[in-house]
Structures are given as structure tokens and as C-alpha cells.
Amino acid sequence: MLTNEEVAKDLIRKFGEEVYDFDEPFGLLTLSTSREKLIPILQHLKDHAVYQINFLTDICAVHYPDDPNPAREFCVVYHLHSLVNNFRVRIKVFLAEADLHLPTAITLYASANWMERETYDFFGIIFDGHPNLIRILNMEDMDYFPMRKEYPLEDPTREDKIDALFGR
Amino acid sequence: MNTVLDISNKNIPGSDVPAQSEGPIQYVNELTTLNLGPTHPATHGIFQNILQMDGEKIVSAEQTVGYIHRAFEKIAERRPFYQITTLTDRMNYCSSPINNMGWLMTVEKLLGITVPKRAQYIRVIMMELARIADHLICNGILGVDTGAFTGFLYLFQERENIYEIYEEVCGARLTTNMGRIGGMERDLSPEAIRKIRAFIKRFPAVMQEFEKMFNRNRIFMDRVVDVGPISAERALSYGFTGPNLRAAGVDYDVRVMNPYSSYEDFEFDIPVGKSGDTYDRFMVRNEEIWQSLRIIEQAIENLPEGSYYADAPEYYLPPKQEVYKNMEALIYHFKIIMGEIDAPAGEVYHAVEGGNGELGFYLISDGGRAPYRLHFRRPCFIYYQAFPEMCKGTTLSDAIVIMSSLNVIAGELDA
Considering its fold, how many domains does chain A have in total? Predict the structure, then answer.
């Protein structure tokens, strides 16, 4: 049975200062890393003889426009799973809005292709090295990234819209 | 405990030579572009594939998805938690209860609510009924795509019976909105229990007839054996989960690996295939239907007594009679309906075994009334990208069968 401490210690031994912000919300090992170390970490976890964390569950992004640190405005979250050890790990990379570049994970996981396209489609994260980084769920001539927080849904309490005229 | 069941047997009865003589692909070096979809009766959903055909063989497929994208993740950022259940219905609409329960369990995990055993068992029954309905549609339609309409019609009668059970439990048929945060909206009525028992009794004969018609049928096997195989390694790389991954020989099932909602109480097998071809996917789904039936039998026989909802007044609506008489109940009722309850901050990932694989919910709460961010891990979306690789070098009719056996649901894919 693989424990969070064991994997965390191994990652710190291997990557030192490059892995930080360790946490385990609801028992799931969570850590942050830099853009440069992302692919080496994924590679290390995948090739590790014991851990075999070789299943990419999901990639998604989160937008934090209110974060005081502009270098942490965007976060890309990778969920990985070891089917052998039944061990999950969540890896986060924080990015600044001015520089939304990340290396692609397609070289490691074929499934990353559409996940990265979806992340690009909704947040505008650019995955360098991706063979076909175009929108996937939205239409191609859309000129904004709709899941960012600056595009709010309609406010249900707004008063300029008259129910009698527009319905509810 | 739960064991792994090998269901692969590909000896086509009555034939020593394979009916299809598959040599190396012969290209005539003249490509035809064929538009398969977006609306095509055999794609069972709105997908477009621009196929490059060389004679009868498919050289490449370019996929376009997103035709019914409804921005659920964005909508969810403005909604109180209980209103998001209705969004999950509309993802995999062939097995809505599984989506509902998966979402409710995610919220309960965040809120720290423990659901009573009885509610957990009711949920298991409903989820397994949904799995049966999901697999029935997939396998029935696979039959239709290979030219056998009869089996589909037989199975649809049983699906109708499952939908009647849904009606009895939650009042709806397709978009169920079943369950509430903290439990179920009502207890299983005697009529619902009667219908479930009747279903358990009647269904095996229908299923046996269906299997008799297909499993060792020469015509059917010629169409599906060795069509669209995928190796376990490629399937894992492509993020396959659920029956499609198990058909490739990997015994990963969320219900066993990370049991939720008391799945650890039940005994069932995980069927696995060998080569991950269309026949294996078909057989794995058939066997899973039997295993689901086993789980339902065990759950209904051992249905625990007790409450069907947790003691979570801030999230679970009080009985209507109480609202009229009791001040506290009135306040909670108002606050829940108006979505004025703040959830604790935190981030949680919860996965359930959906009809098509690992259905995950990644929920980030910042302490507000609605999720700060909600991401659905939709199994269809992730494995559908393997389709071009799987149908390369096959004919158009095989591509239809492969797509059908992958059970790609447009609503889940596009979310």
C-alpha cells in the first residue's frame, strides 16, 4: 500500500525545491510544481518501478483572477492514477496570464490530446508541442476563452430585465 | 471477494476458416472524402467524422465534436449544489441515476455527510439498474447496426420496465434528478420494491434469449470478432475506462478499487476480455448486466432498515408538513431553496463507475454557495479520441460497429 508520505518524500528527494505546496485534501496527495519540471515529474512517476502512476485521469484548468500574486492567476491541474497501487496524485502548475505556456503531455499519454485542447478551448492555456491545438467544444471563430471568470453568467438578481417582457 | 471473470471465447461455431479473409490493406491510391455525420442514423448522436477512404478502406478520420455542448461547467459556477444534479442528468442520458449519485456523493464528501446504509443500498440498486439500461441500449443498438433488429426490441421492453422503476422512485424517466444531498428524496415505496422484484424475476429469461440470439451467432460474430481491437497498453494510454478498458483485459473497476456507497458489501465479478475488439466489448457488457443483476438481488434482499436520508438539515429539505408548522424547518426550507447555504471551502475529486467508465467530479469550493470550479471527467470524451486509430484500415461498416460498441454518448462527450 503506497502512502502519500512515501511518494511525497521521493519527489522531494528527486526534485528538491521544485515541488512544493504539499497537501492532502480528502486524502489525495496534492502538490505544485513549475512548468519546467512538470514533464520530468510525470515521466518519473510513470517510469517508477514501484509507483507505476501511469494513468492520466484528467487535465483541467482553474482561473483565480482575485489571487494577489499575478503569477498564480491560472492553475492547470493534472490528476494521475496508479492502477497497480490504486494511488492517486494531483499535480498543479500555476501560470501568469502573460505567459500561459505549458509543455504538452502527449508524448507520455495519448489521452492528453483532447484534454489539452479542451483546456485551451476554455482557458487559453497554450500547450507547446501539441500537434493540433485548436478549439474542440466551442466554435472555431470564438475570440475569447469562456471559462475565465471575467465572463460571468447572467446575474439572476439584475433589475434591468423585466420578467413580464422577457419571461424568466 | 470480487473475482475476475474471463469471458473471451472466439471460436466461431461451425467454421475452421475465418469468414473474413483479411490480407494486408490494398490501396488503390485514390482517396475519397466521405462525410460521416454530424447527423447520421448510425452514429447514435451528433458526431462528425470526415473519413478519407481509399476504395473501401478508411485511411484517416477527422473528428469534430461539440455539437451539443451546453457549457455545464460554466452554468454550474452560478448554481447552488442541489441544482447541479439536473445538469448531470443530461450528460450520460442513458444512465442518468449514476451521474446524479456521483455528483451527490461528491458534494457529500465535501460537506462530510455520512449517508445512512439504507439510502446507500437504494442508490446501489438504482445505479445498477441504470447500468443495465445503459448496457442494454449499447448492446441492443450494436445488434441493430449489424442488421439484427429483433434483439433490440426485446431489450427495449426491459429498459421500459427499468424506466418505470425510475418513475416509481423519483417521478421521472429520462432526466431523473434522483436523490438529494444526504440521501434519497423518498423511501422505496412498496410498489417500487414490487417492481424491482418483478424485474429481477422476469429479466433473466429475456437476457438469456438475447444472448442465445447473439453470443454464438455466426453472422454476428463474423461482423464483430477482431473488428476494432485495441491493446491494453494503447487503451490505457488513451485513457479508456469502464467496459471498453476491461474488454482490453485490464480489470479496473472503480466500484471495486475505490468502493463507494457500500459497494464493498456486495459480491460480484469483473468480466474482462482479451483483445479489446468489438466482440469483447459486447461480451463484457453482457456479463456486466448479469453482475449488476446479482448486485441488485443482494441489495434488495439485504435492504437495511432505517432512515433514507442523513441528518443534514442545512442541505436536506425538511418534510413539507414540518415547514408549515415548525419555524426552524421553514427557515431551512427557505435557505435551501434560495441557495443561501455556504459550503465549506475545499477541493475534492470523486469518481464513480459510470456506464462508460470512470465518471469523475472535480469540485473546488471557495466557501461560497456555488462551486468555484467544477470539472467533469467524462469517460466518453476521453476515449472517443482513439476512434481514428481503431477504425484505420477497416471498412465503413466496421467503423459504424466500432463506434457503436464504444458507446459514445453525445451528451456526455460534449457536456
Answer: 1
Nearest to B74 among A90, A136, A146 (CB): A146
Alpha-helical regions (H) of chain A: 4-15, 35-47, 112-123, 163-166
pLDDT digits 0-9 by tens, B244-275: 999 999 999 999 999 999 999 999 999 999 98
Give per-residue pLDDT as tens, A70-106.
Answer: 999 999 999 999 999 999 999 999 999 999 999 999 9
Quote the domain boundaries for residue A77. Answer: 4-166
Q: Are A127 and A103 in contact (CB under 8 A)?
A: yes
Does a cis peptide bond (omega within 30 degrees of 0) precede residue B388? no
Contact B375 A60 (CB under 8 A): yes
Q: Which chain B residue has the Cα nearest residue A113?
A: B385
Q: With CA atoms as reference, report the closest residue to B261 among B106, B85, B80, B91.
A: B106
Query: Choosing among B236, B246, B390, which should be mutated to test the A contact, i.e. which has the most A CBs within 10 A?
Result: B236
Cell of A52: 507505476
**Whole-number Å distance between alpha carbons of B143 and B85:** 32
* ipTM metric: 0.91
C-alpha cell at B22: 483479411
Out of A30, A79, A153, the one facing B75 most closely (by C-beta) is A153
B136 touches chain A (CB under 8 A): no
pLDDT in tens, B284-308: 999 999 999 999 999 999 999 999 9
Say if the Cβ atoms of A86 and B372 lie within 8 Å: no
Chain-chain contact of B109 with A57 (C-beta, under 8 angstroms) = no
Nearest alpha-carbon partner for A91 in B349, B385, B237, B102 = B349
Of A51, A58, A8, A57, the C-alpha closest to A33 is: A8
Contacts (Cβ under 8 Å, ≥6 apart) of B307: B116, B118, B119, B183
- In this structure, of B35-39, B166-170, B186-190, B367-371, the range with the lowest mean pLDDT score is B35-39
How close, in Å, is residue A9 to chain B by CA atoms? Answer: 23
Q: Are B409 and B134 in contact (CB under 8 A)?
A: no
Instruction: Give the per-residue pLDDT at A168.
Output: 44
Q: With b meaning 16 or more CB within 10 Å and e meaning fewer, what string describes B68-83?
A: bbebbbbebbbbbbbe
pLDDT of residue B7: 67
Residues of chain A with pLDDT under 50: 168
CATH number at residue A21: 3.30.460.80
The mean of the pLDDT values for chain A is: 90
The three-state secondary structure class of B234 is helix
> Testing the interface with B: which of A137, A139, A149 to mutate, by most B Cβ within 10 A?
A137
Is B180:B316 a contact under the CB 8 Å cutoff? yes
**Domains in chain B, ordered, with CATH?**
4-9+65-414 (1.10.645.10), 31-64 (no CATH)
Instruction: Provide the 3-class DSSP secondary structure of residue A77.
Output: strand
Q: Is the pLDDT of residue B22 over 60?
A: no
Interface check for B314 against chain A (CB to CB < 8 A): the answer is no
Residue B31 above 90 pLDDT? no
Q: For residues B414 and B45, give the distance between their C-alpha atoms in angstroms, rounded to a whole number.
A: 11
B307/B280 Cα distance (integer angstroms) = 41
